[in-house]
Amino acid sequence: MGPLAIEGLTKRYGDVVALDGLSLEVPSGEVFGFVGRNGAGKTTAMRIVLGVLTADAGDVRFGGTALTFEARRQIGYLPEERGLYPKMRLAEQLAYLAELHGMAPSPARAAASAWLDRFGLAARAREDLQSLSLGNQQRVQLAAALVFGPNLLVLDEPFAGLDPVAVDVMSGVLREQADTGVPVLFSSHELELVERLCDRVAIVDLGRIVAHGTVAELRAGAPERRSVEAPNAPADWGEGIPGTTVVSRDGSRLLFEIDPGIDDQALLQAALATGPVREFHRVEPSLGEIFRAVLEEDAS
Amino acid sequence: MNATPGGRPIIFLVARREVLKRLSGRVFRIGTVAMIALIAIGILIATVVNSKNGPQAVRVGFVGATTTLEPAFTGWATASGVKVSVGEVADVATGTAHVTDGTLDVLMTGSPTAPVAVVQDSVPSEIEPALDVAVLEARLTASGLTPAAVAEAVAGTHVGVRSLAPAKPTDPELGPKLAVAVFVAFLLYLSLALYGSFVAQGVVEEKATRIVEILLGTVRPSQLLAGKIIGIGLAGLLQLSIVGAAALAMFHATNVVSIPALSLTAILEYLVWFVLGFLFYATAYAAVAALVSRQEDVSGAIAPIYIALIAAYVLVSVVVPDPGSTVSAIISILPPFAPILMSVRMATGDATSWQVGLAIALELVSIGGLIWLAGRIYANSILRLGARVGFRDAFRGK
Fold first, then answer.
1. Nearest Cα to A210, choosing from A2, A37, A4?
2. How far is the C-alpha of A264 from the C-alpha of A256, rounded, in Å?
3. Nearest residue to A129 via CA among A92, A89, A81
4. Beta strands A253-258 and A244-250: pairing type?
5. Among A46, A88, A81, which Cα is nearest to B385's?
6. Which residues of chain B have a CB within 8 Å of the CB of A101?
7. CB-based burial label for B146 (10 Å; 0-12, 13-18, 19+)
8. Torsion-angle region of residue B115: left (phi > 0), alpha (psi -120 to 50) or beta?
9. pLDDT tens for residues B237-282?
10. CB neighbour list of residue B294: distance below 8 Å, 6 or more residues apart
């Protein structure tokens, strides 16, 4: 299955450029995180993949061929705007959607009940959707994207509104799906989750990809940082050490950024010169920090 | 192409969901019971009216020599199952007065072999044969029994008639026919309005709940639209069929009215008009409903279509007083009105076959046009959430 290849997608709404030549590829078996500010173009790109929106230019391929309507029927899709029939029973609703995606009636019913079970809703299978809490409705929505055994998953903010238990179930499901070879593309603002879950990440801004790769690859471009705690040092001890800058301070703990090519041992010496050093370690930037740095750079 | 192996066709799935949803709804259960109750009440009223002025004995008075006709007449009338009440009348003047004031239906005057029946307008058709035979017997008696005499006697035995107040011929079934026509019009109007609005609400529900974005990943807009219209239409047709069957059964059991307007064929014809009317209105409803995204905007969006349907119902009052007129014929052929008005004129027996054929042809042509238009508007606006989509934008797909 796969890969999903998006190439040069462009979409304008009047003067607003939603997508500006966005390209990415999600290989089979990979969980791919799509991050970016609100309005960056993530949802637009996903809707174009699903065919609910048409691009002005560019194309979407799956397994090397252009996505036809029939191929799109095998995509599990979680739209940004959630929606199911409020007055339809959970089990019936999921079975109906599974049948619409081409499943025969009895496997469809079996899959519906299996997914309800997986999301902890088996006991409520005969209730109408509207009788559930929003969080539980969200679980049903996820089940709706998975119930027919998709061969590609496109999920817009799958973790929004989920409790920690559901987040764990969902994370497990995404990994599991990817392990069976399904490419998984999802967007999220929960960067810690993205960092933990994704094989690769793309940062989108103003309708194009501004950075992408594994989280380690993205980090590789970020400046080196050291956290130093020297409890007896004067407040301004960190100023003026060649090749370093103080990024932040937290009591007697300072965070330094080290210019490329500068030896961090010089910083340690300077710290030791002030007295005891309780802590000296390398700080890896979080995806959130990378994200902010990349967007800042993109803006300038 | 619509289903992968093992799966069922998409339109079938969509339609089945709609049918099941409507059948489990309150409108279906309560509505069906209410419609049948309405018909039962109608039958009850008809029965009461019938028992008051219903099959009464024909009152025949004999004066002078014609009294000899009486035994034969009574015998033959009773034998043929006609209820008569006979009596002798003192003289022609008294009898004529009774006919005039309505206490007597027929006064037999003159000679037994060539009597004259004095009536208000015409001799009740059911007693005519008995009268003829009575006169024939009188003639045979009077002339002996030679074949020639019999033949001669048989010639021209018809009773001469002198009408005191000749009336223009009226259809004795006109009352029941009009009642049926108005009732059929009401049921059709009700069903078209109800099931048409179900289509509109269903279209908007899918937009309002945003489920349409998921559906359109696997269902084409045309399939979704067709499945919805077919499913809701079948539910409506089923409801009307149940009502129609119940009505037929009740008419049959009570034997209160048996006119062509209530035959099985006629009821099937009304159902055909429901189907045509539903396709016409439901398609139009679906198109305009696709332009809005919220349930509260539905009634405003469908108003223009609903007005056409109301107009069709209001025009029933134009057609009923004179179903055979040119005006009635013309308006009953126009597609927005034909489903209701042509049914009315078919019930009264005034629709000629070419008019019905033309109306059906025009209806089908406009349904075809509407499906094309609605499919286009629906596909172009179904994913456009938020503000109401302009008709022109929806048509052009901008």
1. A37
2. 10
3. A89
4. antiparallel
5. A81
6. 4, 7, 218
7. exposed
8. beta
9. 999 999 988 888 888 777 666 667 778 888 899 999 999 999 999 9
10. B204, B208
Which amino acid type is present at position B223?
Q
What ipTM does this complex have? 0.81
pLDDT tier, B40 (very low <50, low <70, confident <90, very high otherwise):
confident
Extended beta strands in A37-98, E state: 57-62, 65-66, 75-78
Structure tokens at B174: 């006109």
Chain segment B308-338, per-residue pLDDT in tens: 999 999 999 888 888 888 999 999 999 999 9
In degrees, rounded to 5, the angle at the alpha carbon of residue B362 between the alpha carbons of residues B358 and B363 is 115
**Residues in chain A, total:** 300
Q: Which amino acid is at B7?
A: G
Q: pLDDT by residue for chain A (300 residues), tens digit each?
A: 779 999 999 999 888 888 999 999 999 999 999 998 888 889 999 999 988 888 999 999 998 888 888 888 999 999 988 889 999 999 999 999 999 999 999 999 999 999 999 999 999 999 999 999 988 999 999 999 999 999 999 999 999 888 898 899 999 999 999 999 999 999 998 888 898 899 999 999 888 898 888 888 888 877 888 999 998 888 888 888 888 989 888 888 999 988 888 888 989 998 998 889 999 998 888 888 888 888 888 777
Closest chain A C-alpha to B18 CA, distance in angstroms: 11
- Structure token digits, residue A140: 């049903």
β-bridge partners, A248: A255
Other CB atoms within 10 A of residue A184 CB: 28
CB contact under 8 A, B214 and A83: yes
* Residue A42, H or E segment: helix A42-50
CB B266 within 8 A of CB B346: yes
Candidate from A50, A75, A83 with C-beta closest to B209: A83
In this structure, what is the dihedral angle of CA atoms B199, B202, B204, B209, given to the nearest 10 degrees? -170
pLDDT of residue B168: 55
Q: Tell me, what DSSP letter sits at residue B66?
A: G
- Beta-bridge mates of residue A279: A229
The sign of the CA dihedral B282, B285, B290, B293 is: negative
The whole-model pTM stands at 0.75
Q: Which chain A residues have a beta carbon less than 8 Å from that of B217?
A: 50-52, 72-73, 75, 77
The reply to whether residue B213 touches residue A79, judged by beta carbons under 8 angstroms, is yes
Give the span between the Cα atoms of A163 and A155, in whole angstroms. Answer: 17
- Please tell me whether residue A123 adopts helix, strand or coil conformation: helix
Minimal C-alpha gap between B29 and chain A (Å): 18
- Which residues in B have their CB inside 8 Å of a CB on A? 1, 3-8, 10, 13-14, 17, 21, 205, 209-220, 383, 385
